[in-house]
Every structure is written in structure tokens, then in C-alpha cells.
Amino acid sequence: MITPERTEKGQRVYTDAQLQKVHTIQRLRRVEGLNMTAIKRVIASQFPSPPQASSDDASIPGSYTPDVTPLGARFRAARVSGGMSLKQAADASGLPISFISTFERTNRGATVASLQKLAASYGTTVTELSTSGSRSTAIAAEVVRRGEEIVAPQFEPGIRILQLANQLQALDCQRWILAPGVRSEGAYSHAGEEFIHVLKGELIITVDNDAAVRLHVGDSISFDSRKPHMWVANGEGETELLWVNTPKSY
Hints:
Elements: E1 5-6, E2 12-13, H1 16-30, H2 36-46, E3 65-66, H3 71-81, H4 86-93, H5 97-106, H6 112-121, H7 126-130, E4 133-134, E5 150-151, E6 159-163, E7 172-178, E8 193-200, E9 203-207, E10 213-215, E11 220-224, E12 229-233, E13 239-246
Antiparallel strand pairs: 1-2, 3-4, 5-6, 6-7, 7-13, 8-11, 8-13, 9-10, 9-12
């Protein structure tokens, strides 16, 4: 599951991503007691292999070149370009300076709620920072085949986000794949409206402090995104969602 690089003298060299994978494997084995088959399934979902770019991609009208820059570094660039200090970012987002600094340096510790608050304080969105790259508008309609989706940079174990509509300017359309028990870690709100349809598993969501709603396969929910909302993937296996926001506000 892990293939390290080697120096000229044959010494193994591990990247930060590979070390994170090692720690995850140890936790799954020792703490959760999973066997190797189950561990491989979890690792495959949490650490997807990067897509292999074709040398001809740049010549394909409407093709998208993903940016592999870690999400924490992208957030730091957004903060710096906006002329904000760490303290100003903390004051604007309501998040601790230590969290912002750690996330920028290590790409760890973030949640859906914290990223949304941080992006909003920078005047941008998580989607915009996650999918930065070159887009062509030379095509009339974009087709995204199954298995060819752009995978957003991972910021939290157990959450995988696939971009389904890269060309649109005012619509976030994504497939979220959530491991059991993954949650938003608090309520968050933002401008716009959103729609969620359950493709697999079960989602429990609370909107505007009302009673929690339990959604099963085939169920949908829509609401004003300005109302605080929080959620948890409650299925025994993975939960898959079609998640749409407008305007781009996640």
C-alpha cells in the first residue's frame, strides 16, 4: 500500500502523505481492529491515487489541469494575498490563531465548518480554493464521465469530494463520499441555497436548530444555506451524497 522513494544509497524516503497513511493504517489495525482487506478498502477511499495526466490534455478543449498544491498552502496564499495577518484572520473567522497556523503548515486539523468560516473570511469559497487551476470555456457543455471526476484536495480523513461541474460559475455540484461517523464538527452557514440527495448510506442533518432529519437512499433535502446546518454520516458503510450549492458558496 506504500512505496517509498529511495536515495542513491538505498535509504527509504517517505513523504508527509505516506507517513499520514502509515499512521492511519496503524490506527485502523490497533484501535479499530480491522483486517488487511478492510484496511485496504478504507485506505483506497481516504488516499485515492492521483490521476495520471495525459500529455495531450492541454490540447483538449475544456480540459482541466488540477493544482496539486496542498489545501493548507492555498488558504495561506489567499490570506497573504488579502493582506491579512494570522490575528486578523482569526478575528474575522472566529477561529484560533493556532488552528489557522497549523492548518496552513501541515494541512491537518480542519473540518468542513472551520474551512467554510475561514474561506468566507477571505472573501472566497472552499470550492474555489480546492479547484484552482486552468479552465477552458471553449466548450458548450462539459461532460464528466464516471471515474474521471476531479478529486478535491483532502483536508479531513473520511471525506472525499468529487467535482462534477468544473466549468460553471454559479453552481457547486459535487459527490461527497463519507466514511461512517464523519461529521461537520459544528454548525456553519453561508450565502445561497443548497440541495442534498442521498445516493448511498444514511445522513442525519439539522437545519436552523430544528429537529434532526434522517435521510436514507433516495431521500433529498433543500434549504436556505444562511440557516446554520450540521450533519453526520450515520450509515454502517460509506455515505454518498449528491450535493449542490448555488451560488458557489461552500
